[in-house]
Design goal:
This protein is an alpha+beta fold. The chain has six helices and seven strands; from the N terminus they run ααββββαβαβαβα. The protein has two domains: 38 residues, no CATH class; 155 residues, GTP cyclohydrolase I, C-terminal domain/NADPH-dependent 7-cyano-7-deazaguanine reductase, N-terminal domain (GTP Cyclohydrolase I, domain 2, 2-Layer Sandwich). The strands form two sheets. A five-stranded mixed β-sheet has the order 5-2-3-6-7, sandwiched between helices. Strands 1-4 form a two-stranded antiparallel sheet. The protein is globular, with a radius of gyration of 21 Å.
Length: 208
């Protein structure tokens, strides 16, 4: 179901009136249309299956000799994402770290980001978002194990209520062989090491 941009624009105009603004003044005249287009992007994942990008897999058991099958996890770190908190319709955004244990097939790395894009393009809570990505990989890809860590800053925490601009929220969703305590610790360690290396590289570049 596509976002009804005409209705969103009309409702945005009504919202401007409701808060005491004049929607016909120059600065706001185009705002309803702009909000409608933003809504089409932010909520475009509603009704879509997050597992759809996993339909095309790559068989890595066949190829140049010697033939083999994957034995370790595939981990993609620092995937930027943004979504809208369903409680206040304020944005939250951050980085996702996604790992899975394949069988004989893997998926293009960009597909992992697209799974996240679809699941996040709807009113969400961070806890559910991570679980939906994990479910998509477990069932859509048949992964032996899945690990999803999200680290995000929330507009509702930064700009209203508690007003804690420096806070971030970390959630973890894990399935199968990557749900054990040891596996979760291993994945977290890889993510932390990656962040430390990135910080070291950035400091080295800055110091040149």
């Amino acid at each position: 179901m596509a976002v009804d941009t005409e209705r969103v624009a009309a409702l945005t105009r009504e919202l401007l009136v409701a808060i005491g603004e004049d929607p016909d003044r120059p600065g706001l005249r185009e705002t309803p249309g702009r909000v409608a287009q933003a809504a089409a992007e932010m909520y475009g994942g509603i009704g879509q299956d997050p597992a759809a990008p996993l339909a095309h897999t790559i068989d890595v058991s066949q190829g140049p000799a010697p033939e083999t099958v994957p034995t370790g996890a595939v981990l993609v770190r620092d995937i930027r994402f943004r979504s809208m908190c369903e409680h206040h319709l304020l944005p939250f955004e951050g980085r996702a770290h996604i790992a899975y244990l394949p069988h004989e097939s893997v998926v293009g790395l960009g597909s992992l980001a697209r799974v996240l894009d679809i699941a996040s393009a709807r009113p969400q809570v961070q806890e559910r978002l991570g679980e939906q990505v994990a479910d998509a990989l477990e069932h859509g890809l048949g992964a032996r194990g899945v690990f999803v860590m999200l680290d995000a800053e929330h507009g509702c925490m930064r700009t209203r209520g508690e007003k804690r601009p420096d806070s971030s929220t970390v959630t973890i969703a894990a399935r199968g062989d990557l749900a054990t305590e040891a596996a979760r610790a291993e994945m977290a360690a890889y993510i932390i090491i990656g962040a430390q290396n990135a910080a070291t590289d950035a400091a080295a570049v800055k110091g040149r």
